Amino acid sequence: MTANPVIDVLGRRLRLAVIGGAPGSFIGGVHRMAARMDDRYDLVCGVCSSNQEKAVRVGTEMGFAPDRNYATVDELFDTESRRTDGVDVVAIMTPNDSHFPYAMAALAKGFHVICDKPMTNTLDDAKALHAAVLASGKVFCLTHNYTGYPLVRQARAMIAAGMLGELRMVQVEYVQGGRAVRREMAPGSPRAWKYDRAKSGPSLVMGDIGTHAHNLLRFVTGLEVKAVCAQVGSVVPGQQVDDYAGAMLRLSNGAPAMFLATQAAAGIENKLRLRVSGSAGSLEWQQEIPQRLEYFPLDAPAQVFTGNGPGTLPLSARSCRIVKGHPEGFPGSFANLYADVAEAVAAAISGTPADPLALHFPTSLDGLRGIEFMYATIASSKAGGTWQELA
Amino acid sequence: MTANPVIDVLGRRLRLAVIGGAPGSFIGGVHRMAARMDDRYDLVCGVCSSNQEKAVRVGTEMGFAPDRNYATVDELFDTESRRTDGVDVVAIMTPNDSHFPYAMAALAKGFHVICDKPMTNTLDDAKALHAAVLASGKVFCLTHNYTGYPLVRQARAMIAAGMLGELRMVQVEYVQGGRAVRREMAPGSPRAWKYDRAKSGPSLVMGDIGTHAHNLLRFVTGLEVKAVCAQVGSVVPGQQVDDYAGAMLRLSNGAPAMFLATQAAAGIENKLRLRVSGSAGSLEWQQEIPQRLEYFPLDAPAQVFTGNGPGTLPLSARSCRIVKGHPEGFPGSFANLYADVAEAVAAAISGTPADPLALHFPTSLDGLRGIEFMYATIASSKAGGTWQELA
Amino acid sequence: MTANPVIDVLGRRLRLAVIGGAPGSFIGGVHRMAARMDDRYDLVCGVCSSNQEKAVRVGTEMGFAPDRNYATVDELFDTESRRTDGVDVVAIMTPNDSHFPYAMAALAKGFHVICDKPMTNTLDDAKALHAAVLASGKVFCLTHNYTGYPLVRQARAMIAAGMLGELRMVQVEYVQGGRAVRREMAPGSPRAWKYDRAKSGPSLVMGDIGTHAHNLLRFVTGLEVKAVCAQVGSVVPGQQVDDYAGAMLRLSNGAPAMFLATQAAAGIENKLRLRVSGSAGSLEWQQEIPQRLEYFPLDAPAQVFTGNGPGTLPLSARSCRIVKGHPEGFPGSFANLYADVAEAVAAAISGTPADPLALHFPTSLDGLRGIEFMYATIASSKAGGTWQELA
Amino acid sequence: MTANPVIDVLGRRLRLAVIGGAPGSFIGGVHRMAARMDDRYDLVCGVCSSNQEKAVRVGTEMGFAPDRNYATVDELFDTESRRTDGVDVVAIMTPNDSHFPYAMAALAKGFHVICDKPMTNTLDDAKALHAAVLASGKVFCLTHNYTGYPLVRQARAMIAAGMLGELRMVQVEYVQGGRAVRREMAPGSPRAWKYDRAKSGPSLVMGDIGTHAHNLLRFVTGLEVKAVCAQVGSVVPGQQVDDYAGAMLRLSNGAPAMFLATQAAAGIENKLRLRVSGSAGSLEWQQEIPQRLEYFPLDAPAQVFTGNGPGTLPLSARSCRIVKGHPEGFPGSFANLYADVAEAVAAAISGTPADPLALHFPTSLDGLRGIEFMYATIASSKAGGTWQELA
Asked: Which SS3 state, helix, strand or coil, does residue B110 take?
């Protein structure tokens, strides 16, 4: 048994195609990083732009084989669906309005699908896509990534295990400040589509983050929203799209909930917070410190659960890549050293100068200093705690 | 220009070999994840075990080409150094006592080297390795990964930019609880080498975490330690190795510092903390919430710097993978979805059942629920904020 | 000019009478402590119970002069209103339903009034009392004490000074867990009135804490609530009174707000939180750490304001009793020593044994140990940082 | 049984005299507030200044009876020691160098003594005073007030109860920034004595805060310091007094400790922090959020103890004035309303204008708004959650 369950089962990695997410796109880079992180996918092809020339150029840069460097999504779907070594999974990270047609086409060609949220821009499309998924028998994953945090999964597992008792109320809020100032978007600029309702959907704030908050509530509690009473609109004068959605909810067990999603809270970065209360206690999680989960049991001191720390339940444990006490970003700190070293090595091989900002990784000089310090420290202690000079 | 500076320069990724870090090793997995994260390396070969049979078996599982699946490190170094498409970089993640011979051998064969800390177990070895690195002209990186955190780099850049003025004092502490209880290690168990001073070096706590704290102090301040007065030993009765190292330091500019490294603080997970004070203010960083840096300017309210947030300096900005407000673990939350999907897809392809714990990712049903909720919310608001039932 | 503006103006302290708040009542003790803290009042009389015998007994214990130890509120009002040295201020801390008659009577007799919230149980009473206050020209203070925190006043002053720009949205929540479990109250038990709507008013959660949250929003923003859409009731099965009130609000400048007050969040102690966002930034305050105010300016790092710290505005400064860096509870830490010493001294004078729990204050032995430590520390340093034994 | 154990035992409050602490002195005001807070003392006389004229003037302002308004400490001690209703307790809050003579004189006259720290400026004086206290049989309290915080007492009680097991190590640090900039003090300015070693003692930082940190360690752990190795001096160029004291300690059970006291950490307000680790877990407390105590049990999730919250032990419970969830500063928030009302009432009585900053307390208008809001909220909910306009 290896550490790679896909290789265990298939004897190979999955073959992945990406639709959208050209370099420069934030979320495209995140998808590809996520696909690489656990080594279960080979990114074999993709169409990162609706501009065919750009699509092929980026494909070359990404190292796709020439015979798999497609200019259009149709071409990719057609060709790959006929290859014996064709892609298994298609990941869609395009503007909102194309999620539906690409996902439908991918399913029709027999691919498994990973798709950015919101799933579609219209309710009819959502119903049609869900039906198509069920009919296809394919795996379909919507990237509500906050459900991927180990402590969010811990919260779900703790509630499922009854640690909160009967659920009584929920508060969820997703507060950002990115649209606190009205911006004129030049037509054709990379994010201009966000301000075009035809592309971004009927309510930008709901599509961007409201669906995240809604899904987080559902994921953790296991409850559905049965009724809603809402204020939706824009609070920034002249804002072209919705930037505020507040609501009261009634959940499927009758419990009330408060819901807020806004992108107009000036100065706030990304406060996604959830509190769930039940007959036996409450839980709180906040996205900005995701490696902690606060548990408030009835009549006992509050407890803090951490990634892989004491009390971690299996659903959370399998989502932790690192040992307790280290935040989820720990591999990224290593990766920054690897990335900088790569630039330095590439410069050395090519004889070109490296970016000076890449040259801040620890070197053998730092290693020597560390060993000198260790020996001086030990010597000082052995001499009864006396001062020891270093060279 | 792509998003991949290595491909920009070399037209290919770097070829990486790993020494040590068999599956099951925590740090081996982190190294490989770090190498994949930014897509600048291809892992082409490696020797993960000193057991030749195991090394080859693991190599197969990792997907190494048969002609590059080596049984010994010597064989890998010899063969790869003669291939025209041989490895560029060797990453060493073995027990402490073998860092030195492997690093020396790798340099001798012309490889660039990434090496786990502590660099060596003896001071003579450290001097020899540092001299060899200088003589080789090769890139050598010691994985003091805490220097890779964006806000640690921000701290370094802020101090270099004079935002603290003249440095006056430093406090650094690295407090863990992993050795608060004395453990008997079965000989041959995976971590038994830690308790054997011949393998783990003269002071386990200093090698494991003391060198991290020392290097963090140096990295952020740009100062060296010039003198030390220390208490080193074990506070847990019967502990076979050092678990405590407290010290007072004198830094190269004359400033005093307090230093503590311990692995015997029961119940504490991983508190690595740094405070630097200068004539113009102070900075505090703590590893457990690495995406925040607290800045205490003289006579002004305290400020909180965040990853990619306002005030981010270039050295920090280039180390941030994500937009402000998201912790460094954000890609990992995506990766957990990708990993679970991979298991589900592999199960679907192979016709085997998937681990039920892998089936908690959001699906088209969740997408449909989100769109239903968005529409109901909008409808409620449009109707003047009235209650709207969901199906 | 003294430190006591009342003595400056009147040459004496104000004479205070208390209605309600017998020993054992939490809030009664707080009122009297508050009255003493700044030395501007002499508590000269009071009626702490509707039981006449108890009222007189408690009055004796409180040290009221025999001729001012009243058995009924009427008697107190009548007599004191005719004395030339009669009370100036009447403080009312009785169950909710008697706030109105006592306040009206006090005003009618010419007293200034301090009154616990909620002001009345009915809207008609509230209008009548407000009219009576206006007609009387007397000072009337409702003890929405959260407006007394220095950093809440700082928030008000910052907003008034335009530091948030135009206000865009508000979120306020007051979440407690005290009624998460349904309790049977024995009739006549001290808090039984809370569960009797005739005494506690039409909505316990709104009277207890909802009015606090509402007033905090108004105090800090300077805005009024113009419309509300609410869910009010109980989420704990069988609860006799309201324990939950969620609402969406429209404020007087058109901004939306989210409002929540609940006492049924199991395990939560007392989370009163406010966030205000404007065009130029946002503010957050939480009652559990009241000495901090977080300010999120648009496009600049977040700032933390503290009591009497840099940037403190005059309205906040005058409300701070202590120097920066000390929480508002600092005087209480001193008072605990004074209180314990008082028990020890009383025991010494009377020859009775003191409660052993009172004997944990620092003594001359601790003082000696401190001076020994100071001298040993200095001696060690003077000897170049060598170990110095203490006796 | 009343709520006042002193009146229970003696039938009266204790009579208190204060030495030093004229208005304008920070700590003088805190002492008097502390004495009033729990109503166990009557402040009957005092000498707040060594300037006789000023002493009498301040005594008048403080409302001392003319026959007890003393010009000198000697006069106060002589006269009060002969009165049958003379003072019981003398509280000393003068510059450091006079603590010793005043305390000795007070004991000699038969008074109980409360004395500011550091107890004396010399070790001989400390020994002499301690001997005098023992010989006198009087109560002597040194105001190491941090031992008065409920959660510090909780920490002591938890350790005494064995919740940490055998103590293994301690870290204590007291970090301030008040002397980060060298100041020239005008001779005779109120704090000039601090910069005169003859008055402030051999090490200002040790006397000011180092003794606090040392005593906190001893109070919580019950251990003594048996050896010290220290760096003491100033890190701010030209500083006239010590501003830095770092040390390693060996405690009476053999455990090591790290100790730091500094007033030169620019921008830092008042970080007093303590961590104690034992075989069964660790505890952390920080002065800036004193109402929380973090407990890290071995192999279980971290717990947070709060004032009067679940798990509060008797020594802590008796030191809590307020119900759980409210910080220790809660009475102060009430007191700010009382203080402002007092100014408004004094203005009303005297016909003078009140300071506009005093007129921010909630009034009957706020009360009316609250009741309007409560009724509108209830009405909205009763109508099924519909919008309800307010007047």
From this structure: coil
Residue holding tokens 């990434």?
Answer: B114
For residue C298, the chain A residues in CB contact (below 8 A) are 177, 180-181, 266-267
How far apart are alpha carbons A380 and A391 in whole angstroms?
14
> What are the φ/ψ torsions at residue C148 (nearest 5 degrees)?
-90, -10
Residue D51 neighbours by CB distance under 10 Å: 12
Beta strand residue intervals within chain D, DSSP E: 14-20, 41-47, 89-93, 112-115, 140-142, 167-176, 225-233, 244-251, 256-262, 270-278, 281-286, 292-297, 302-306, 388-389
Question: Crossing angle of helices A99-108/A73-82, nearest 10°?
Answer: 20
Q: Looking at the partner chain, which of C219, C360, C385 has a beta carbon nearest the beta carbon of D230? A: C385
R_g over Cα of chain D: 25
pTM of this structure: 0.96
Cα separation, B24 vs B18, in Å, equals 15
- pLDDT, tens digit, 9 for 90 and up, residues C100-152: 999 999 999 999 999 999 999 999 999 999 999 999 999 999 999 999 999 99
End-to-end alpha carbon distance in chain B: 50
Backbone dihedral angles phi then psi of residue A119, each to the nearest 5 degrees: -60, -45
CB contact at 8 A, A138 and B348: yes
State both tokens at C360. Answer: 């944990």
Is residue B353 reached through a cis peptide bond, with omega within 30 degrees of 0 on the bond before it? no
Amino acid at C16: L
Tens-digit pLDDT profile for residues C225-284: 999 999 999 999 999 999 999 999 999 999 999 999 999 999 999 999 999 999 999 999
Question: Given an 8 Å threshold on Cβ–Cβ distance, is D384 in contact with B385?
Answer: no
Inter-residue contact A366 to B63 (CB < 8 Å): no
- In whole angstroms, what is the distance from residue D341 CA to residue D364 CA? 13
The 3-state DSSP class for residue B187 equals coil
D302 near A CB under 8 A: yes
Distance CA D35, CA C342 (A): 9
Compute the distance between CA of residue C79 and CA of residue D260 in angstroms, rounded to an integer.
61
For residue C73, which of C27, C37, C41, C105 has the smallest C-alpha distance? Answer: C105
User: From residue B72, how far is each of B18, B46, B48, B81 by CA, in Å?
Assistant: 12, 9, 9, 14
Residues in chain C closer than 8 A to B300 (CB atoms): 310-311
Q: What is the DSSP string of D59-107?
A: HHHTT--GGG--SSHHHHHHHHHHSTT--SEEEEES-GGGHHHHHHHHH
| DSSP codes, A221-289 | H---EEEEEEEEE--STT-SS--EEEEEEEETTS-EEEEEEES--TT--EEEEEEEEETTEEEEEETTS
Q: What are phi and psi of B381, to 5 degrees?
A: -65, -40
Paired with B257 in beta bridges are B170, B249
- Per-residue DSSP letter, B7: H
With an 8 Å Cβ cutoff, are B303 and C304 in contact?
A: yes
DSSP, collapsed to helix, strand or coil, labels residue C287 as coil
Q: What residues have CB less than 8 Å from A275, skipping those under 6 apart?
A: A170, A171, A172, A282, A283, A284, C175, C265
Query: Could you identify the residue written with the tokens 């009432």?
Result: D345
Residue of D nearest to C214 (CA): D370
- Nearest-5° Cα angle at C362, C361 to C363: 115
DSSP B173-186: EEEE-TTSS--PPP
Mean pLDDT of chain C: 94
Task: Check: CB of residue A17 under 8 Å from CB of residue A35.
Answer: no
Is residue A1's pLDDT more than 80? no
Residue C99 scores a pLDDT above 90: yes
In this complex, is the C-beta atom of D151 within 8 Å of any C-beta atom belonging to chain C? no
- Please tell me the distance from the alpha carbon of residue A289 to that of residue D124, in angstroms, as a whole number: 53
Residue D63 burial (CB count, 10 A): 17
Tell me which chain A residue has its CA closest to the CA of residue D229.
A385
